[in-house]
Amino acid sequence: MRRKRYATSLLALSLTLTACTSGGGKEDGAAFGSMDRDDKGTLKIGYFNEEAFYMQYGNAFQAMFPNVELEVLSTEEAMLADDPVTAMEDFIGEQQPDAVLLTEEQYADLAQDGKLYDLDAAVKQDKFDLEGFLPSVIDLLKARGGGKLYGLSPSFSSQALYYNKDMFDKYGVPYPTDGMSWDEVLQLAARFPVKKGDNNVAMDKVGADDALYGLSLPMQTKDSFELIREIGEAKGLLYADSEAKTVSFDTPEWKAIVQSVVDGYESGSISSPPSNGGGGQGGGGLMIRGMGGKSTISFGPATMRFMSGQAAMTVDGPLLMNMLGIGGGGMKMATKAAGSSDGGAAKAPGEDINWDLVSIPTDPSQQGVTGSMSLDNIFAINASSENLSAAWEFLKYANGEQLAKTSSKSSPALSSRTAFKNEADGKNIDAFYNEKINEQALLQENSLPQGFAQSFEEMAAGQINQAVQGSQSVDDALKAIQSQGQDLLTKALADEEAAE
């Protein structure tokens, strides 16, 4: 449920930037001087889409500095590459921009390689206000930057627990509250009368139309292991240690989590994710058009249990809030009836849902610590830049109060500046802002050999599915995950050592 969610990926595709200047101004190669309106120069902008850049940033920035010539370079190829981290490194090396807007993974990699400029001097010299930012955003930027601040992010994504108030009222179940543990949420989910769909029979089937679940997994959940991993991380558990070269999964702590989740899958109180990740499966669905109607995202029936009133709770990001009709604009929603020949629009799912949200479940031992926060739009400066003032001026604008104020009324993204939270029509928007970063999980993620985490989770999901379907016990699943996981880690470490 962490990091590469479809909601934040959508925002990442619509917001990607690089910038540089030459000539004029007050550049001295060392200090960050403030530019005047009359200063001349050239600002090279690398952005996913030129039209989107001018609409989002360029027109207003040009009005502020009319003598700065803007040139937009497309980063589309790098952002859509199979390996966007390496592709962005190549882009920066070839184009030598002064500033760049990166995804979180690109930011972490470039910071580690010394390709980004440390912003501490600029922040202090210019007295740039970091106190207006959500502390967790700055903490995550520094954690990803190895303890230093190499970038700023105007927005972030996190998750919250959505709940259907009418369903809770109907069945006499108390509403969830901020700060609940995962154990408490799973207990709430089990109190609803289960009407199972087909997912207890086959993990890739969509549930029946009248299926009812206490907890539906996020629309971007790709496999049955994600919930187990997230609960474990909330408790401070790690499944692999690169330094010790060991996998540690067949333990009483992990078994308790696996057993509770498998029980939920088996009973139907927790919806089992389809094997293809939940979207686009046959039958009707939701179609979202963004970026001026130039892109379309489709969600199949398995993604819409909460919106259709088939789930009492779900854990998801701000995009779902926008789909339910709350928050900044920018998304045009329409439904396509199953088998409709004309593709006509129908009433939007979720329109009649009486819902609210609370903070994502955490563990009492680490209250508020989650791994759900992500940053897909991080502005940073090229360490090789000779035009620091202009690059910094752009970063200040892109992360400034005025743009945050405007964006809060027009974008579904969560503003990093807490004074400009999205308008939420009385909904508990603070639920997205209550999170603390999970530094331990980040350390594990950064230390594991490339490709291992994905391989481990795919393997573990297969074993969990067998336990849910009754073809093996939970104990057998734990032993298999432990053994096969150790083999995967040993091989990944050997491959990494050989590559070096």
Question: What structural keywords apply?
Answer:
D-Maltodextrin-Binding Protein, domain 2; 3 domains; four-stranded mixed β-sheet; 17 helices; 36% helix; 15% strand; globular; disordered N terminus
Overall 3D shape: globular
| Whole-angstrom Rg | 23 Å
State the total count of DSSP E strands: 20
**Largest sheet properties:** 6 strands, mixed
Q: Which percent band covers the strand fraction? A: 15-25%
User: What gap, in angstroms, lies between the N and C termini?
Assistant: 31 Å
How much helix, percentage-wise, in residues?
Answer: 25-40%
Q: What is the SS-derived class?
A: alpha+beta
Q: Enter the CATH topology name of the largest domain.
A: D-Maltodextrin-Binding Protein, domain 2
CATH architecture of the largest domain: 3-Layer(aba) Sandwich
The CATH class of the largest domain turns out to be Alpha Beta
Mean of residue pLDDT? 80
Helix count equals 17
Unreliable sequence segments: 1-30, 198-208, 276-298, 329-345
Going across the biggest sheet, name each strand in turn.
Answer: 3-2-1-4-18-5
Q: What is the number of independent domains?
A: 3
